[in-house]
Amino acid sequence: MTDRIICIESPGTRLFVRNRQLVVVSPIDESEKTAPFDDIGALVLGTSHVSLTGDVLSVLAEAGGCAVVAGGNGLPVMLALPTSRHSLHGERADIQVGAALPLKKRLWQRIVKSKVKAQAALLRKIHGDDSGLDEMATRVASGDTSNIEARAARVYWGRIFAPHVFHRSPEGEPPNHLLNYGYAVLRAMTARAICSAGLVPVIGLHHCNRYDAFRLADDLMEPFRPMVDQAVFGITQDRGMATDLDKTAKSQLISPLLRRYTLEAESRTLFDVLSLLVASLVAVMDGKQTDICLPIPHALLEGE
């Protein structure tokens, strides 16, 4: 699988299946474009005015891909994931449920430390210094009991778009809308890797919102968020803080999710990286491995 992300942005586009390929019909001139389902990692329906046959989603799921559906404001509101690609769902669910709290706390410590280090790497890249985040990462305790993640976030968000004043909130002022979109697609890719490994996305390590069906995805995607942040920074530099979430912006936001990254001295797609992370999580929870597999933070900002 090449893990293509196909975005449908034009109202009136029609989708159907022909010979195990996705057929996309232009609303302008009825021209067709095709793509093998085995090459599609995610199908993003960026407009609500799209018509598709039911087998588009079923064949996509059979091939291991996921679908992200946007609402009227262009932001993703639904995620559809494959559920029948793995024969060990029950066994893997038992492993998740049986994971001891101290282990979960240690894994969360590892994730938060990696996230803060990635934030530090991005601040160094765009502003020349990390604003003390690398030092903060060294103080992340098991379970992050001193809440370094939130303390680092206050520094990070106060600095990243400087000299502009910015507060991170899903419902906040621009460019929060750009961050929301990029994070939603990243979340979908993470959830896809989780389901592909036979894990249950609702059983998390740290996130525990009762209304969150993708807690584990929200846990594991944390160190990868600065990839999206970097793309948003680039957009704001070119087009300003209040740029529209248009086709060009969406393409720039998805771009880092399509690159290749270095992990264990090998060039891999982001889905490969996420799959290795999830596989290592299974091995750790099953007592076969001692640590999860996360990329070097600065490598996430330097994809090919």
Describe the protein in words:
The protein is an alpha/beta fold and 304 residues long. The chain folds into 2 domains: 77 residues, Ribosomal Protein L15, Chain: K, domain 2, CATH 3.100.10.20; 213 residues, CRISPR-associated endonuclease Cas1, C-terminal domain (Four Helix Bundle (Hemerythrin (Met), subunit A), Up-down Bundle), CATH 1.20.120. Helices cover 44% and strands 15% of the residues. It contains 10 helices and 10 strands. The chain has a 4-stranded mixed β-sheet with strand order 1-5-7-8, sandwiched between helices. The radius of gyration is 19 Å and the shape is globular.
| Helix content class | 40-55%
Shape: globular
Strand content: 15-25%
Overall mean pLDDT stands at: 92
Helix segment tally: 10
Report the strand count. Answer: 10
Structural domain count: 2
- Describe the strand arrangement of the main beta sheet, using strand numbers: 1-5-7-8
Poorly predicted sequence stretches spanning 5 or more consecutive residues: none
Largest sheet: 4 strands, mixed
Named CATH topology of the largest domain = Four Helix Bundle (Hemerythrin (Met), subunit A)
Q: CATH homologous superfamily of the largest domain?
A: CRISPR-associated endonuclease Cas1, C-terminal domain
The secondary-structure class comes to alpha/beta
CATH architecture of the largest domain: Up-down Bundle
How large is the radius of gyration?
Answer: 19 Å
The level-1 CATH class of the largest domain: Mainly Alpha
